[in-house]
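Worked example

This section walks through a single chain of length 299. The input is the sequence exactly as stored; nothing has been trimmed or padded.
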Amino acid sequence: MQYFVVSVDMGSFHSAAEALITTQPNVSKIVKSLEDELNMTLLNRTRSGVIITPQGERIYAYAIEVLKNINMINEFKKGQEIETLSISSVPSNTLSFYLSQFYNVNKQEKDMQLDFFETNVQNVIRRVHARKSELGFVYISKRSMSAFRQRIKSKGLEYHELTKAPLYLFVGKNNPLYRKKSVNETTLKDIKLIQYHEKQFSLYNHLGHIKEDVIYNGENMSISYTNSDSFLTQLIKNTEYGCIGSSFVKNQYHELGIKAIPITSCEKSISFGYIRRKKDEISDLAKSLILYFDDINRF
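Given that input, the structure is written out below as tokens.
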């Protein structure tokens, strides 16, 4: 089939032989064998090349589909030999680093591929539920946990905590709190914040659980939202804006002169872990990754 299709596409057995890295007589012989098997003339031979016949036109269309299907089967077989793990995650420089380390540790033993998609908590839930990702890594505040568990339960998902982490205020040198060693919720009442676009499960929501909480009383408090990591970083670095985040992005900003200031009373208040489909057996590669992360000191 392939020799016939290439001969039609190239217009001659000679050109087809060059494309297929074989000899012209071999191409001619294989095409003739196909014609004999089908009991029909597929190509008319001329001095300048070959011309497809009306019967050949019909066979050509079928041959194209056959070759496509064969290629798909070969790709599938090739994919079976490669272990693939698809992951969705909220932004986390620490997680990204250790995923690369996990790959380096295991690549000698197995042919593996990691697919990584970074997004917000809501989309992590959607992607794991829709089977676009096998595991979804998230960090959730203590105050959002009940709503989060209820949400994933309705999707047939379950959450496994890996560790707990503190909450930080990230600021640049233009922020008046830059030299502070720690801050509390009262200190934050008049600050300008830039946060990742995360409606329901924003880490900012951990500060001020109810309307009367002190953080809501700041007259000068301003909150902007973005889905751009680069914009968020540049705004913190070059303006008075700050960002509420977990320790999982702490090292990401240090080299940029952005300071991570602990928020008192928020130690170990953020849960970091993964979601998975409750009824599905996870892959061996996913199990290996979870065992790798079980050494909690990594975080």
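What to look for: Confidence is low (pLDDT under 50) at residues 203-218.
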